[in-house]
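Figure 2 data, in text form.
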Amino acid sequence: MITKSAELVKHAEQKCPTRLTQSLESFAALREGYIAGAINRLEEYGLWAKALSEANSHIAVDKEEIAAATDAYNEVADYLATNLSWPPESISIKPQGSVSTKTLIRSPYGSEKFDIDAVCKIDISHIEADNPVSFFESIGQALKELEAQPKRRCWKIPFTGRKFYLEFTPSIPLNTISEQTLHSMAPRYSVARYGETALAVVDMPTESWKTSNSEGMSKWVNDTSERRLLWSNVMEAHAYDRAAASISPVPDQTVDITDTLRVAIRLFKRHRDMCARRGIIDAATKPISVIIVTLLTSCYEGLADLGRSFEHPIELLDELATLMPHLVLELDGKYRVDNPTVEGENFAEKWNDDNGERYKSFMTWTNALSADLQSILALKDPQAISIRVRDVFGIAAPTGGGNGLTTIQPPAPRATPASRGLA
């Protein structure tokens, strides 16, 4: 039976039969023995791969900053254990989101803080599960000295003087709550995948428990990224090694371009941020990261489910960029980007309450992304490729002297509609 991700990809392929650039040719020549032409193509791909790898390394968060965030988790746990008189073993704090999937990126604004998402699982024997609001507020009270600020489902801890802030979601394991509490939760949200990591979190606007599965989302991204779509051969490895030899990896958050799903998530998020910075899209309506992650991972998973293969990471990166905007669903006049781990949760829910502004921003951004990737893949000269990549992703030239940014005109919005009729 065809999977949902495979169905989405097949539908997207019908809408965009051509890739971003005709310069990405098949490696059929290599398979048939025409070695010289294949090596030339590999070396050409290697120039693009080298420049994009350098951009990927530049936007990674440093090891020291990740270590500081780990210390922050411990600090929060200590406050909870002390102020709520809970034993430390009843508190489990884990990173979630981009930290746990190695897709965290630095802000292009320099001094702007980056956010670290964490989920706190509490042993249910230490709370009143029938009173979610009391549970949520008790967490905030315990973190008062850290200046915790309430949000819809989490507490934001600013950590003044540090390079990050923490968004901290209190929760209890879904499989530990009583049947009575389970029945009181929002009925339209149920576990779809990775049920062993599902949680109950407090939704403050409704003052009730809601199903969540942030760890399941991370496992989905990580598991999907391990699926092999690249066709490997000795000559390809040789050509890539020559191109990548000068790239300095970033400890802990190192992601090689052959890990193409994670690279796509990181580079595309950075491109979105640059579009907002340059005024191409409104920062208030820019696509949220979870939508980008979900669409790209669904696309990658669908390609794997369909048995697709690619000869080089650049080809796969191009395919992800081409198909991504066509994976948004439109059902009964409503946009949908479904949470693959929680049935009924729509990450694009706000797109249906703003007169189409967020969807317009999404399409304008993906249009700009395609145009910028086309401009990179059209170049053959190494220096020109490097300059263009730095410009597109907002990276200062190695010699310093300015931020390397130029004014880019907003592209015309695409008329591509969302995919329709896929459940």
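Caption note: Residues 4-61+221-420 form one domain.
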